[in-house]
Amino acid sequence: MSGASVRTYPRTVALGVTEVELRYMRGGDEAAVLAFARALPPHDLLFLPRDITHPKVLEAWRSEIERGAMTSLLAFEGAEVVGCATIARDPLSWSPHVAELRVVVARTARGKGLGRVLSTDAGELAVASGVEKLVAHMTPDQVGAVTVFETMGYRAEALLRDHVRDSDGVKHDLVILSLDVDRFRTRAAAYGLAESQAP
Question: Which residue from 13, 42, 58, 176 lies 20 to 30 Å from 82 (Cα-Cα)?
Fold first, then answer.
């Protein structure tokens, strides 16, 4: 993927009989994002570093976007947020070439390909900004999400035992998947895959 191929936003995506609009998260989206987050199953929030159902966390999230440490794409069906993809990157860390990709999709929008669309678009944005490696965190029992990432070229890199604890105090493992962008491009070229298939 080249920088010239990065998409522009907002853009409309057809998912079967449904259309969603993808655009960058901005000020004024807090209420819609909060409603989206609070409708997610609690287990879906475990792989996120913070609980996005709290207004203070959303406020910090917006601040991170404003200072350029995060980029978030929202998927809207009408006025309702049905999906979100966030790229988190710390250019002042020891790993400025690495970004974490976080994707969550509303229950009502699953099984339509929205997770793949968000993952691909966010991946393209990350690579265009100079990211060389993408990582994604999830619990191993989130089979659908793990499968989507693996079909995009991500591979399991680590399993952290009892790493997250849910609101009931139950501990869960956390799997870390990663994608080495240059390695994926080289392998894709060797197998004759279109560049657009890589994030």
Answer: 176
pLDDT digits (tens, 9 = 90+) for 22-34: 999 998 999 999 9
Q: State the CB neighbour count (10 A cutoff) for residue 45.
A: 18
Domains contained in the chain, CATH given: 3-197 (3.40.630.30)
CB atoms within 10 A of CB 133: 18
For residue range 28-56, what is the model confidence (pLDDT) as tens digits? Answer: 999 999 999 999 988 888 888 889 999 99
Asked if residue 59 lies in contact with residue 94, where contact means CB atoms within 8 angstroms, the answer is no
If one counts every other C-beta atom within 10 angstroms of the C-beta of residue 82, the result is 23
Cα separation, 94 vs 33, whole angstroms:
31
Q: Which residue has the tokens 């909060």?
A: 34
pLDDT for 196 equals: 46
* 75 membership: H or E segment, kind and range: strand 70-77
- Could you tell me where the DSSP H helices lie in 129-180? 143-151
| CA–CA separation, 190 and 186 (whole Å) | 6
- Mean pLDDT of the 124-138 span: 92
